[in-house]
Write a structure and sequence with these properties.
The structure holds 2 protein chains of 2 kinds. Chain A has helices at residues 12-42, 72-104, 110-124, 128-139, 182-208, 212-220, 225-255, 267-278, 281-310, and strands spanning 150-152, 155-158, 161-164, 168-170, 173-175, 178-180. Chain A is an alpha+beta fold. In chain A, the strands form 2 sheets. In chain A, strands 1-2-3-6 form a 4-stranded antiparallel beta sheet. Classes of the chains: A alpha+beta, B mainly alpha.
């Protein structure tokens, strides 16, 4: 019996791929064709010249200097700077909180263990956006101002912001070397609390993956709970923890784009304003997606390097 | 590491061991108890004396269905009644026909607890929300029907026979389509434009639409990514990594602002549906990774054995590999669905009136200005209950699908 050519095992894979490839190409051609036609009709054909025009809007707070006369690209850059600021401080905060909470799962104190479980279960089952607006509108915006503000040594938390480094009350207004706006504080708190819960689970999984015998061996050498964890268990747990952290860090970077909900001018917020003013939808989306992709890749690259460091090196 | 001991000893002894094992533990426990007591006390004081829950009570209809026209709301009541009836019957039949290899009680303890909880919620919610007697009665009747059908199906289900009970699997997809018709109109009933849908209705609609449609798409992408054909593999990889690299809000932004340009004029779907499709395509990429992890847990020998038995590759995937892979991937898939449900809140940022969007419009009303705490706390509790229930359901399903107790190893 002769096999017809379309059932030949050497031909079928290429036939399938050809058909799928053709369909995908047709779809892309169809979409791109429409895009070009519709953009031409709207007079919005791809162009980057508008990036040099003055933005005409201001940004509430920014690491990089910016005002309404500067061009759009400076605005987007300032937004990117704000995003990086939120992501980097968020990464540090969430790592500290998550590691502490993850370790607390192994505490000898039953109350602390249950409290950490409660924290994780509450945070993971409530949408991040809801948590962010809660922190901003309910917690930070209801803080008192002036003398009634929350005062700790070296830190003052008021409705007008978080003041660090010996704040002084001058004419009813707090002054300090470092002031964080409530918008940034709310965003940071929300991101740290949310990612902290996920990182706590990663850390807990990592510590749980270390055999019990390691704890017992460390304690028979006379090490206490903290010393066993610090010198024996954590170094081994890191091998499991680091890849999990990578995922959480990337999702924190992406989640920082919700900053617009609490009025913090991050990259997405600036891009949205830019789109509303210029109508340049395609260019703005390309810039946005590109920026976040690069940010993700950067985090992945750093974490992969870290991963190589913590793997067991065999002699 | 002092791992928690199993329940042994007197309650007093357990308390001492858990909280006051060492002096340091004792100090920590006392500090924690003090902090917790202060927090709970101030929350209760706020909840009972300062909070004004009228903002939730007066807007309960808005939170439930948005601006859905009052004259057409009977359709939603009908849909809820149908869903409750189908739930009751399915629940009863699942208990009436336990898995053949595993005996099952008709009324396990969990079911008794669930029925009591349902009854309590049906009694408490109308009172707490200050609903009118007529609406409260409807909720009571619907809950009563659910529990009654659960009892009836459990009692008389076995008389039906397994074959006829199996038809129930068809009821759910039909009900879903019927629900879509009831909500949006058409087929002889007045259309309700999607711009008027809102609240919990829109949240559940978007989430269920995306969950249902992302599933086949995600499985195809996972198979594509593991395929030996380079074009399929690279196509899937590019799609999955592109979607996973972008924040959902930028994709929703893309859907709202660019989809109109990508399609011929007038063909672009309405805003609600654009968002639903973006959610679907977004969720498919994440689901594909979950399914892929399940697929890689299945030894290659399974596919080879199935092929050796004369099954084609497609048949082998369908009958041998996928059922096992999906079972392994189930917990991850459900946690993806839970985050999808949570992600629907992002729709409020592109101007849709789902739960959070409704909350924003309510609080923009001068009568309710500044009542953020009450509204956000209510939404938080609502989401927490939905997500926690999904998580519980997932664990129950895992146990039901667990093959380890099957004597004959049938899948």
């Amino acid at each position: 019996m002769v096999t017809p050519w379309w059932r030949d095992r050497r031909v079928v894979p290429w036939l399938v791929q050809g058909v799928v490839g053709l369909l995908v190409l047709l779809l892309i051609a169809f979409l791109l064709g429409n895009l070009v036609r519709n953009l031409t009709a709207a007079g919005l054909l791809l162009s980057w010249r508008w990036l040099g025009q003055p933005a005409g809007f201001d940004i509430g707070e920014s690491l990089l200097p910016f005002n309404a006369e500067l061009p759009y690209w400076r605005g987007l850059l300032a937004g990117l700077g704000n995003t990086l600021r939120a992501v980097i401080s968020g990464l540090i905060g969430a790592t500290v909180l998550g590691t502490l909470a993850g370790m607390a799962n192994f505490s000898s104190n039953g109350l602390l263990r249950r409290l950490v479980r409660l924290y994780v279960e509450v945070v993971r089952n409530i949408p991040l956006l809801l948590q962010l607006v809660f922190w901003y509108f309910v917690v930070f915006l209801s803080l008192p101002n002036g003398t009634a503000a929350l005062q700790l040594p070296g830190v003052v938390l008021a409705k007008s912001g978080l003041y660090l480094g010996d704040p002084q009350l001058v004419n009813g207004v707090w002054q300090a070397p470092l002031r964080l706006t409530v918008e940034f504080s709310a965003l940071l708190t929300g991101l740290v609390v949310y990612s902290g819960a996920y990182i706590a689970e990663v850390v807990r999984g990592g510590i749980a993956s270390v055999p019990r015998g390691q704890w017992e061996a460390a304690s028979s050498l006379g090490l206490g709970w903290w010393a066993s964890l610090r010198h024996v268990v954590l170094p081994q747990a890191l091998r499991v923890i680091v890849p999990g952290l990578n995922t959480q860090y990337i999702s924190l970077a992406k989640n920082s784009s919700l900053a617009v909900a609490v009025g913090y001018a991050d990259l997405y917020a600036v891009a949205e304003t830019t789109l509303n003013q210029t109508g340049r939808a395609v260019e703005v989306v390309i810039l946005l997606l590109g920026a976040y992709l690069v940010l993700d890749l950067l985090i992945s690259a750093v974490m992969n390097g870290l991963n190589q460091l913590v793997q067991i090196r065999e002699r | 590491m002092n791992a928690p001991m199993p329940f042994s000893g007197s309650p007093w002894g357990r308390l001492r061991r858990e909280l006051f094992a060492t002096p340091a533990d004792g100090v920590l426990s006392l500090a924690l108890i003090a902090v917790i007591t202060t927090l709970v006390a101030s929350l209760l004081r706020w909840g009972f004396t300062q909070a004004n829950w009228a903002v939730v009570q007066l807007n309960s209809t808005l939170f439930a269905v948005g601006r859905y026209p009052v004259s057409q709301q009977w359709r939603l009541w009908l849909l809820v009644s149908l869903l409750a009836s189908a739930t009751g019957i399915t629940w009863g039949l699942l208990r009436a026909f336990p898995r053949p290899d595993r005996g099952g009680e008709l009324w396990p303890n969990n079911d008794r607890i669930a029925v009591v909880l349902l009854a309590l919620v049906a009694l408490w919610t109308p009172w707490a929300l200050g609903l009118t007697a007529a609406i409260a009665l409807r909720w009571l009747a619907i809950t009563g029907a659910l529990i009654a059908l659960r009892w009836l199906a459990g009692r008389f289900g076995p008389a039906l026979g397994r074959e006829r009970a199996g038809w129930l699997a068809v009821v759910w997809p039909v009900l879903y389509l019927l629900g879509m018709v009831l909500i949006s109109g058409g087929l002889g009933i007045a259309p309700v434009p999607s711009a008027e849908w809102g609240g919990l209705l829109l949240t559940l609609l978007e989430a269920s639409f995306a969950i249902l449609l992302c599933f086949p798409l995600g499985v195809l992408l996972a198979l594509g990514r593991r395929s030996e054909l380079p074009l399929l593999r690279w196509g899937s990889v590019i799609y999955i990594e592109f979607i996973r690299g972008a924040p959902l809000i930028t994709l929703l932004f893309l859907g709202q602002n660019i989809l109109g340009f990508l399609l011929p004029g007038g063909l672009a779907p309405e805003r609600v549906w654009r968002a639903a499709w973006v959610l679907t395509f977004f969720a498919a990429a994440y689901l594909a990774e979950a399914v892929r992890s399940g697929l890689s847990a299945i030894p290659k020998g399974q596919l080879e054995a199935a092929r050796a038995l004369g099954l084609s590759t497609l048949q082998a995937l369908q009958h041998v590999v996928l059922p096992q892979a999906l079972r392994v991937a189930l917990p991850v898939m459900v946690s993806q669905f839970i985050s999808l449900l949570q992600d629907t809140t992002l729709l409020s940022m592109i101007g849709l009136m789902e739960l959070l969007g409704t909350a924003r419009t309510v609080m923009a009303n001068p009568d309710f200005l500044g009542h953020y705490g009450e509204v956000y706390l209510t939404l938080g509790v609502l989401f927490w209950c939905c997500c926690a229930a999904l998580g519980l359901g997932s664990r129950a399903l895992e146990r039901r699908l667990d093959p380890r107790h099957q004597p004959d190893g049938a899948g």
